[in-house]
Amino acid sequence: MSRATILLMLPALLVLTLFGVVLASFASVSLMVLDPGSAVFHGPPTLANYTRLLGSEGAWRAVLTTLRLSAEITVLCVLFGYPLARVLARSHSRSLRRVILFCLVATFLSGGVTRAYAWLIILGNQGLINQGLRAVGLPRAALINNEFAVVVSVLNFVLPFFVLTLFGALRTIPEQLEHAARNLGASRLRSFVSVTLPLSLPGLAAATSLCFALSLGAFLFPQMLGGGRVHVLATAIYDRIQASYDIPSAAALAVLFFLLVLLMLAVVGGLRRLVAVRFAGEAA
Amino acid sequence: MTSSTTISRRCLLAAIAATAVLGAGSNAFAQGKQVKVMTFGSTWERVLKPLAPAFKQETGIEIVPIIQNSSAEGLAKLQASRQSPGVDVWFTGEAIAMRAATDKELFVPLPKDKLPNLGKLIPGASNDMFVAYWYFPTGIVYRPDLVPGGKVTAWSDIFQPAFKNAIALPAPTVYPGRTILIASLLNGGSIDNVKPGIEFLGKMRDHVAMFNSSDTNARRALARGEIMAMIGSPSAVKELADQNIAVAMVSPKPTPLIFEGMMMVKNGNEDAAATFINRSLAADWQKHMTDIYNLGPVNKEVAPAEALVKVLPTPENAVTFDEAKINQRLGEWTEEFNKAIAK
């Protein structure tokens, strides 16, 4: 490895080292113990926090809720995001592409809290949707302070990431391949199913793994729109600090959360490689 | 010509050096004449900021605010930078103050000899490490224009079918454990037996619109008419009334009273911190606080604001709890509560 390469790698190595130090300090705190009712935690190192968490019904419920909601959001991302990314990549209308891009970028630029309040106004009992329902004589729908509100708001947060990632992948698929399929007699649907979709699978896998990872870490939207009923891992960590100031236990939950994310990303990464080998001819 | 240029360069360098030395000196002086107060955004904006200029004029000490979102967050930050906390006075609730007081390396006992105003406080407003700035009841804040009959008189009212999906109860982390404790007392339980309260809240989970994780969320929902009533403090009444929203408050039996106040951080600036704390307890500052914030003054020479008097609980309706027990058990209660709500 040349000196220039090492010098170029230096900033990345420094950032990685910083991440490593933060994780290591978290892990070391997770091995400490808090005296009940106090604010001081101490050693000697013990796995007591992990033992307690693994036996905690609340922690497991938070894990399962997090995984289930992340999976639901990812599926919805594919359903809504794929057509949007395809229109963005293939539409000949410059204005349409601009409108879609503007909406996506505007979503990126608006802060999380702003978006959460916007959803409160839209989904609330006196919100725009319920006002519309009342106007046509329909009963009020419970759209807020539940999982529905959390799924919708997190979807709104992750969809731009999904669409823009997939858009990049779709742009690399030559349009001529679809034209060739159509010339050979394939219908639009057949051309999409047999040509575009398989070639876009590696990009789709990348976009879904990003979307899944972002959903796993959601905190603000479950906290603001879940009405105290939606307990995901991030809110469970927060609760441990707010309720009992049990920072070692919160750190242990954070470490378990990190390991879970690594495991999920490894699984998704494996699937991605399989897809890449099968449909894009990449070396395993 | 050359000589004069050299002289002027020397002069310039000397001037820069002198400025730097003087600057450093004046910074050090200014540093000594500051008191860094870690507090909540609304407390700074509404209570302390208007008093800061007069305090500086009177004592020469500038109040520097450091805003925290919650006491737990503030404590975590202080502990993480304990070698040099950069904070002299920390605002918190009494429960977390008792927890924090166990960190002897971070907090110092109140220097009672430098706080003559301690003698003017109502009973229970201070201990060796913590002194309250205010107290408040956590009762029912409601919209008379939305509730049936225009009035709420008892806790049982808000659990009637007419209030379904129209009330907000604080999650256990807000007003530490008070929702669970009120529900427990109403259902035959106590601080030592909160099971009846948690079971009741579990049964009522579909009746409650939200278990709010912050007072602000519930207050905004009440302002928008999303809910008819919430558990809150007189401060919420004042804030909503200032927005021309018609709200009322009732403090039925049992209404918990909560103290919130200050602790002194070991930051090498204890004299300025003591001056600030003592001034906070003086009658004129307490009067300003109760008028602006609508919370109870701890200085017994000061009458509560007129709007507050109407909503304070009668002595037989007011309850206080053992904060040490709450500290020890809140984590366990929260877990049980979350389980009951998730069922």
TrEMBL record, chain A:
The record, for SUPFAM superfamilies, names: MetI-like
Q: Which domain of life is it from?
A: Bacteria
- Classify the protein's membrane topology as the record does: Multi-pass membrane protein
User: For this UniProt entry, what is the primary localization, expressed as one broad class?
Assistant: membrane
GO cellular component: a single term: plasma membrane
Q: Where is the protein situated, by its record's location annotation?
A: Cell membrane
Location of the ABC transmembrane type-1 domain: 63-268
Transmembrane parts of this sequence: 69-88, 100-122, 148-170, 191-221, 250-271
Keyword annotations for this protein, in alphabetical order, are: Cell membrane, Membrane, Transmembrane, Transmembrane helix, Transport
| Statement: the UniProt record of this protein carries the keyword Lipoprotein | no
Q: Which Pfam families match?
A: BPD_transp_1
- Which biological process, per GO, is one annotated for this protein? transmembrane transport
Spell out the family assignment given in the record's similarity comment: Belongs to the binding-protein-dependent transport system permease family. CysTW subfamily.
The molecule here is called Putative spermidine/putrescine transport system permease protein
Species the sequence originates in: Bosea psychrotolerans
Automatic annotation (TrEMBL), chain B:
Q: Which SUPFAM superfamilies match?
A: Periplasmic binding protein-like II
Keywords assigned by UniProt, alphabetized: Periplasm, Signal
Extract the signal peptide range: 1-30
Name any GO cellular component annotation: outer membrane-bounded periplasmic space
Listed GO biological process terms: thiamine transport
Q: Does the keyword Signal apply?
A: yes
Any one Gene Ontology MF annotation carried by this entry is: thiamine pyrophosphate binding
Record-given protein name: Putative spermidine/putrescine transport system substrate-binding protein
Q: Which organism is it from?
A: Bosea psychrotolerans
